[in-house]
Write a structure and sequence with these properties.
Layout lengths: L6 H4 L3 H7 L12 E4 L5 E3 L12 H15 L2 E5 L2 H13 L3 H16 L46 H5 L25 H10 L34 E6 L10 E6 L4 E3 L5 E2 L4 H4 L4 H18 L1 H4 L3 E6 L2 E5 L2 H4 L1 H9 L15 H19 L10 H15 L4 H12 L21
Parallel strand pairs: 4-9
Antiparallel strand pairs: 1-2, 1-3, 4-5, 6-7, 8-9
Length: about 425
Amino acid sequence: MNRNRPLLALLAPLTSLALTLGASTAFGFAEDLCYLSDGSGVTNCNQLACAPGVQTPACIAGTLANAGQIAQTTSGGRSMVHTDSTYYLAQAVGFDAEAAYWIAAYNEATDLGQYVPADRDGNLLVDPADCNVSPLPAGCEYVTAVIDGVTRTNGPTGGMVLHYGAPMNDDGALLDGLHPDVHDEDHEVLLVNLRNWLYSTGEGCTAGLTVLSSGGDYATGPTCYETASGGGELSYYVPLIGITENGGLPITADLGPQIITDGADPIYADEIDLAVGTAHVEAAKLGIYVHAAADRISHHICEDTSALEGPDGGDFTIDYDEDECGQPIHAFRHAQEVGVNQSALPAADRTTQAALELMYDELRAYAAFKGHARMGSGTAAYRSYVIQRVLSSLQVANGAARQDALIGTFATGGQACSSAFKLCFPAMPGM
């Protein structure tokens, strides 16, 4: 298969996209813990402009404005769902602390392109630019490789769709994206394909699209999608602020193997070891997969009313619902996900617990597959306890206090260490 992307795709308007999508308002479970630029601590990246559960045009606009103002005084940050929560959930189901760290780190790198850990005040442990010398400065051992092909702002590589992948729904099924079926190859094409890639039973493909399988789906075919002429494109419009013509900003991605590391000589999913190193292949694949699964839930209201369609003339399209996928409502929903009492929200907006549940189940399934699932982690009581402890910490309104609450819940000496389940885990590096 020809893996050389056309020059036009390489020159897609990524700069405009990155400027329009502020880091704190862009894509699933966006950063909720932002680092103050003066090094004085951490703060919330998002702040609702009204009480939880209130959804008015004024509140939506005010919440988006709040995110813009906070961005002026912060520099970088992380999602406590993708990073901190993943780290403790992974240990709770049976991974050791080192493996759990790399799963969480590559989960967050799926958003940012590279993850660099910070201390409790938001100060990075090391400048990644200094990690190209020998001997390595302290802290470099915790920095991930660059995986910028899968990031939320990389449209031409298909990275954006990994975060915002609409289901294929040409049969008009009533889908429940709040609780997606990761085995539904007819509809949840991206998740099924990524999961097969994780378990080494299939290739990792752009948008999850394979050639038509013997079962009639586009998720489980033997190779990534290509036409008889060796091509195939995915095109869509991203609904953004101030862009309404033709539905938003146009993006085109070549179909085929998913690009992991972008550049003149890209690294693809089937050679991910060249990007992340042999020792971290499983953690990176698991991190990327659970990230996509959590984002499917985060964006379910938008995606359940959108659709992946094709092939039409050898190409596929995604038709995003402009009302439910626009940037203001998108940012508003993310502001509700962390630091907010979830019980005050409409059921459809309670994405955080649903994501934690799916992440727990998928992390445990892989731990069991590898033969090291924690004893008792498959029981309903244990699962419920762990998820509720994480969720309780994530609902703490103050960013710094929220960070410390989750550490205190599981780290040695914390409240959970005296519980019946004896959940005593080391804190993340730097904490």
